[in-house]
Each structure stands twice: as C-alpha cells, then as structure tokens.
Amino acid sequence: MKKKDTCEIFCFDEEKVNRIQGDLQTVDISSVSQMLKAIADENRAKITYALCQDEELCVCDIANILGVTIANASHHLRMLYKQGVVNFRKEGKLAFYSLDDEHIRQIMMIALAHKKEVKVNV
After folding, report:
1. In this structure, what are the phi and psi dihedrals at residue 56, rounded to the nearest 5 degrees?
2. Fewer CB near the last or first residue (10 Å), C or N of the chain?
3. What's the rounded Cα separation, in Å, for the pair 78 and 60?
C-alpha cells in the first residue's frame, strides 16, 4: 500500500509560518534562484566544475573541455558572468574566466558530494 506524501488534515504552526515568511522578505531568494538556474544547465555546470579544477581557463580551453564551439562556450560563459558565477578578464587577444569566489566552488563541491551520498543511499 502506497503512503500519501501529503498531510491528511490541514493544520500549520502559525508562529513558524509567520517567522519564516518574515525571514523570506529579508533575503534575496530571487537572485539565488537565478544563480542556481544558471548553473543548472549541464554545459554551464561542466564549466563551473572545470573552473573548480583550475583557477582560470580561457574560452578556447573551455570549448575544448566541453567539446563545443567557441561561440557556444562564450554564450554559456556570458550567462554565468551575468549571474555572478564567473569573472572575466582580457589579456591581449585571450579571454580568461575564473569563478567569482570560493562560495561558487563550495556550492559545486557540496552538490557533487550530496549527489554521491544520495546514490549510495538509494
């Protein structure tokens, strides 16, 4: 017999609900959601992971790592840059990208560790 995954009656803890609703108004969940959406694309997740492995990569490096065109890699990098996931710098004719900060690396590594744990527990 299958268990229902919802409450069978309607009731809620008014104090908890009010406290958390108040907290939600003080944090920028929308920006966090947009950043996570940017990383959620498989190619952009691969780029983020690649940049976790090396401090800085040029667009050509990233295109070759992913096996995509430079135009495709650039498109993904622009999206990551707009969401504050990566930094960009130009050196002569080369465009280099790096992670915005250590938090991005931590997010990626924690997500990978979590996924590994979930596979073990399934």
Report:
1. -150, 140
2. N
3. 14
Give the 3-state secondary structure of residue 117.
helix
Mean pLDDT per 10-residue section of the chain, whose length is 122 residues: 82 95 94 95 98 97 98 97 96 97 96 87 62
The domains of the chain are located at 15-121
Long-range contacts, stretch 74-82, CB < 8 angstroms, 24+ apart: 76/41, 76/43, 76/44, 76/47, 77/47, 79/38, 79/41, 79/44, 80/38, 80/39, 80/44, 80/47, 80/48, 82/38
Write the class of the CATH domain 15-121: mainly alpha
